[in-house]
Amino acid sequence: MSRSSKLQPLLFGENDALLRQPFIHVDGASSEASGFGVSTEGLGELWCCVYFPLFSLEVLPGENHSPRAVIAESGKRARILICNCAAARQGIQPGLSVNAAFVLVTNLEIQQQDKRLETKALNQLAAWSVSFTPVVSIDKVSCALTMEIRGSLKLFGGLDRLREELLT
């Protein structure tokens, strides 16, 4: 199973506040090597976390060309949970009330968070990631996958190559 092309997580970057690149963090050893700040030498575990910061938005239908945001109920008021780049450029940010968001962006498309759809999509991504390692865990709260990848390094030709495979 391949990762849906729609699920291209966003990352803070140089040219734009948010770029369409997965955020991958690897932890499990010392030294500074391989561009991740870790050494791939040694016998300990090596963990990789793939974080999807805009997952709540990306699993919902819609285009990212126009301003979009996902809301979540906070007490009796709905608040912005996450927004796309088009909305962020116009001042929309997490925690903003829906009324304040519409004052800033009158054509803002609002969608309710769908936790069931998020869980289904995370489960699909976890099933896909088993092609890299049998040790995969899902963090539904932060919309991330954590994988133990030490045993996969040789199979994929090292950390950089494994990272490339995860990104495609």
Automatic annotation (TrEMBL):
InterPro entries linked to this entry: DNA/RNA_pol_sf, UmuC
SUPFAM superfamilies: DNA/RNA polymerases (SSF56672)
Span of domain UmuC: 69-147
Pfam families: IMS
UniProt record, GO biological process: DNA repair
Name of the featured protein: UmuC domain-containing protein
